[in-house]
Amino acid sequence: MTIIKIGIKELCVNAEKQIETITVDDALSLYQDEQVVVVDIRDIRELYRDGKIPGAYHAPRGMLEFWVDPESPYHKPIFVSGKRLVFYCGGGMRSALATQTVQMMGLKKACHIEGGFAAWRKANFPIEDVE
C-alpha cells in the first residue's frame, strides 16, 4: 500500500496561505464587473445539476493548465486578457488549488471564493441554469 506524504486537506491549507480568498459577499460585488472573469472549474455535470453563477466562464479543472498556457493547443485567450480571475468550485478546495496553480503559472490577478458554489447558494445569490 502506498502512503501519501501530503493529503488533500494539507494541500488546500498550504494553498490558502499563498493565495487570495474572497468571501461570497465580495464575489457578489465583483461578478458583473467587466474587468473580472468569474471562472467555474466544476465538472460539467455539476453545472447541469446545480446551475452556476450568472455569466461565469466554465473551465473544467482537468483542462485548466492547458487552457491557461498560451503554448498549449487548447489555450483560451480569456486567461491572458489581463482581467482579474475569480475561481470557484463546489466547496472551495479545488478552486484554492486552481488559484495556486494559475498563480504559479504567472497569473497574479487570481483569487477564489471561500466556500465555493455551496456558499454562493447558501447566501441565496443569483444562479443561472445550465442546459
Q: How would you describe this protein?
A:
With 131 residues, this protein is α/β, with parallel strands linked by helices. It has one domain: Oxidized Rhodanese, domain 1 (3-Layer(aba) Sandwich), CATH 3.40.250.10. 37% of the residues lie in helices and 15% in strands. It has six helices and five strands. It has a five-stranded parallel beta sheet. Strand 4, helix 5 and strand 5 form a beta-alpha-beta unit. Helix 1 crosses helix 5. The longest helix has 12 residues. It is globular, with a radius of gyration of 14 Å. It starts with 7 loop residues before the first helix and ends in a 9-residue tail after the last helix.
Helix/strand layout:
Blueprint lengths: L7 H11 L1 E3 L1 H7 L5 E5 L3 H7 L6 E2 L5 H5 L15 E5 L4 H12 L5 E4 L2 H7 L9
The gist of it:
With 131 residues, the chain is α/β, with parallel strands linked by helices. The chain has six helices and five strands, in the order αβαβαβαβαβα. A five-stranded parallel β-sheet has the order 1-5-4-2-3.
* Structure classification: alpha/beta
Radius of gyration: 14 Å
Query: Mean of residue pLDDT?
Result: 96
Order of strands in the sheet with the most strands?
Answer: 1-5-4-2-3
The CATH superfamily turns out to be Rhodanese-like domain
Please indicate the count of domains.
Answer: 1
What attributes does this structure have?
131 residues, Oxidized Rhodanese, domain 1, 5-stranded parallel beta sheet, 37% helix, alpha/beta
